[in-house]
């Protein structure tokens, strides 16, 4: 195991930053698509795993958005977002939402509910949580948007969640199935 301590040396600080990034890649977390709409009504979105519930009363959720991302300015101006929790079957959508060079492919595939009254959300998502920005906190390269939940859409069935682990999306049931079969035997 490699252990690093924090100090002021620039080279060491870069090593710590790289090791921290590697450490965070080892944390399994839900994969989401964050969506919003600009002033002209065009949909915008990005893939995100830095999403956490903040409170149940009132219901609130936090998302972390890099200030250099295309979504940041639209979200800052519009003040509303939707967190689409992904299922394993949504894995093919990740590339377009994770790579800015593929921005034109977003919202082309998938079962998007999209009207002028709502934010775009996947009708097949295990859950889609719509929020209004209640607070924002700038920290280093990112802005933390805390959204007050205004609507929740739940899938009719329980779906295999998609998680981000070690730099790629993985369906949980796909990985757990051999273990479940072994335990059942």
TrEMBL record:
> What InterPro entries does this protein map onto?
Flavin_Rdtase-like_dom (IPR002563), NADH-dep_flavin_reductase (IPR050268), Split_barrel_FMN-bd (IPR012349)
Signal sequence residues: none
Instruction: Give the Gene Ontology MF terms in alphabetical order.
Output: oxidoreductase activity
Record EC number: 1.-.-.-
Q: Keywords in UniProt for this one?
A: Oxidoreductase
Q: Which Pfam families match?
A: Flavin_Reduct (PF01613)
Task: Name the domain of life this protein comes from.
Answer: Bacteria
* The keyword Protein biosynthesis is annotated on this UniProt entry: no
Keyword Translocase among record annotations? no
Q: Where is the Flavin reductase like domain?
A: 24-171
Q: Which PANTHER family match?
A: FLAVIN REDUCTASE, FMN REDUCTASE (NADH) RUTF
Tell me what this protein is called: Flavin reductase family protein
């Amino acid at each position: 195991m490699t252990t690093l301590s924090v100090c002021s040396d620039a080279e060491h600080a870069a090593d710590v930053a790289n090791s921290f990034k590697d450490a965070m890649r080892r944390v399994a977390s839900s994969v989401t698509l964050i969506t919003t709409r600009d002033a002209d009504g065009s949909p915008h979105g990005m893939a995100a795993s830095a999403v956490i519930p903040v409170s149940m009363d009132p219901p609130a959720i936090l998302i972390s958005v890099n200030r250099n991302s295309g979504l940041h300015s639209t979200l800052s101006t519009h003040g509303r977002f939707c967190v689409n929790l992904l299922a394993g079957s949504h894995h093919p959508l990740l590339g377009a939402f994770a790579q800015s060079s593929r921005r034109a492919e977003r919202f082309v595939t998938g079962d998007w509910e999209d009207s002028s009254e709502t934010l775009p959300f996947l009708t097949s998502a295990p859950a889609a949580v719509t929020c209004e920005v209640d607070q924002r906190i700038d920290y280093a390269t990112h802005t933390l948007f805390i959204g007050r939940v205004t609507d929740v859409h739940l899938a009719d069935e329980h779906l295999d969640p998609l998680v981000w682990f070690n730099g790629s999306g993985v369906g949980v049931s796909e990985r757990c199935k051999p273990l479940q079969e072994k335990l059942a035997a």
